[in-house]
Amino acid sequence: MKIAGLEYSDGEYTITATVWGKTFPIVISTKNNTMYCPAWRGFTREEDGVVFENVNKRLVSIKKAFTGQKSITFDLAKYGFKVYGGLDDVYVPFCVMNQLFTCGILNTQLLYNGKNLYLYSSRYRYETFKDSPWYSDLKNRPQALAETSYNMLCFTHDYIYGKPGYYGFADAGKGRPDEEKVKEADALSFDAMLSRYDPETKTLLQSSSYADYLKGLARLTLYTYGDEHANIDWNSRIVFNNDEIKNIVYDVLQNG
Q1: What's the Cα-to-Cα distance from 228 to each of 145, 164, 191, rounded to whole Å?
Q2: Is the predicted pLDDT of residue 101 greater than 70, yes or no?
Q3: pTM of the prediction?
Q4: If DSSP codes are grouped into helix, strand and coil, which group holds residue 25?
Q5: Are 35 and 74 in contact (CB under 8 A)?
Q6: In angstroms, rounded to a whole number, what is the distance separating the alpha carbons of residues 112 and 91?
């Protein structure tokens, strides 16, 4: 990403960036803790044409349709996040920026351990991030971490993921959804949806226990989002030197 321009006026930062030849603006308000992105989806989409060659040497051309987008304003304050402004810079929580601009592009992970940022992937396996109590004390999750991770799930569902078209709790039998129940759930925020239809998952996701939190993620992806097109990179969880967590991860990998 290259910053092509930066303007400031009355608590609002207008940032113009270019990525892969595309230009997009972002307007960030320190007063309202919001990010206005008129071209966010256009930035994150891949190229239009992708060609695959299968074992029979037949070429399959896949055209990725893009029908345009509506502008979107991300309300960070609604999810407990705050924007900070400096003399020449504006600071947005890393987890928000990572979710909006990094996760869908890089086949890697960017980790924050309460102290520093780390690049972690199959190629870069730096494990010095474990010196943080976030990773060394695996009995209890800090309250701030538990709240932030749950708020991030709410943010992701409401703005990015939401309305999957199927929920495990709305199954009408044989994998077919109860359309009315799905419609009702789609109209709710993530927090309201869990409170109404799946309080057990909500309790696990908000738990101070790492083990319960992982069980909550498994239940969220395998039951709540019952069609399983959402998933967790479970293998990355094995980096934790904790038998209870490893057993949970292995159980998910082997038994679902």
Answers
A1: 26, 10, 20
A2: yes
A3: 0.81
A4: strand
A5: yes
A6: 16
